[in-house]
Amino acid sequence: MQTYKISINDTKNFYKNLGCDSGGISILSKKSKLHTLYIKDLHVGAANILKQDALSIGADLAVPCGVIIAKDKYVDAVLIGTTKHFETLSKKELAQPFGLKELAKTLKDYVRENDFKTKIMGVLNANEDSFFKNSRFDNSQASFLIEKMIKDGANIIDIGAVSSRPGSIAVEEDVELLRIKDIVDTIYKNKYYEKVDFSIDSYSPKVIDYVLNHGFKIVNDITGLENDEVCKIASSYNAQVVIMHMQNDPTLMQKEPFYENVILEIDSYLKNQIEKAQSFGIKNIVLDVGIGFGKTLEHNLLLLKNLEHFSHFGYELLIGASRKSMINMITPASIEDRLAGTLAIHLESIRNGASIIRCHDVKEHFQAIKVYEAINNIN
Where, by residue number, does the polypeptide cross the bilayer (predicted)? Predict the structure, then answer.
């Protein structure tokens, strides 16, 4: 007899290949993945009940000293268990007091399995102010660059005419539309939208309306649907909408950004904006935590490390850290020399739940992602 430790990603397929029966595959799969859920401001009564219930089924709850004698009325705790444990507790706590009923309703969301295919969103900027000069282009280059991105493996091409780098200043709607109109017309004329999905990086109603009427399918709004008119237009075209978090605006966002708890505050923001989008009839939503948009290096790293948390909403997660300054803060490098750092961030983001990667270097990302998937899909 020989033994070796294994790493399982696709648990259902692994147990199928092992020869387990169909009923056993589902049961074993739910027992194979361990989850740790941070619970903030849990009533001490709830903590004692949840601790005992967790232990009774083989899970556990990490709590501060003094919980058993109710030293503090509210405490933070960490629930540790498998998918099966969380599902059991989601039923068990429905009849319990001290807020456990509300917790029970959300537990299953945190172990939801989302089967989203990884997609590459290539970046093209129709302006002279984008921070990475190699992403800039004009209409004379449009067809060549679009066809190259498609050949290199892009699933989506994101086009913007206004820079959102720190310190950038917004432009008038008519100026933005003028910058992008010829390029959009070229895309429409050549029917490139039949080969790849096009996204507009804008929060201008006039621009968004024009591009959605010319083959674009996605609205990438850095303001997170702040403008009701954008919601109305996106809904009328049944467009997919990217809701991004940004603290303040590009002119102020990097001036001492502060959060009491960056994960919880962004979670609350996304929840509110999802509800707003749904109220306008928008159904196809993507979430973006906004790396570099009103965040310090520590905020960015915490969001990347805990990205899986935001999967509980059930929507695709987009990450765009391509060549951003956070890489330079970790290991000094010019914008042109940040590809390796970009790939490291984006591959870790995929591991933590991202399925749409917004990047400048499509060919290199396509190769890196294919190798990553080959490693993780082997059983």
Answer: none
pTM here?
Answer: 0.92
Specify the CATH number of the domain 119-377: 3.20.20.20
Write down the catalytic residue from 283, 358, 363, 370. 358
- E strand spans, the chain: 34-43, 60-62, 74-82, 119-125, 156-160, 197-201, 218-221, 240-244, 285-288, 316-319, 356-359
Domain 33-111 has CATH 3.30.1370: yes
User: For this structure, is 324 an active site residue?
Assistant: yes
Among candidate residues 30, 119, 179, 324, the one labeled active-site is 324
**Residues 251, 130, 366: CA angle, nearest 5 degrees:** 125
117 catalytically annotated: no
Domain ranges of the chain: 33-111, 119-377
Q: What is the pLDDT of residues 219-238, one digit of tens each?
A: 999 999 999 999 999 999 99
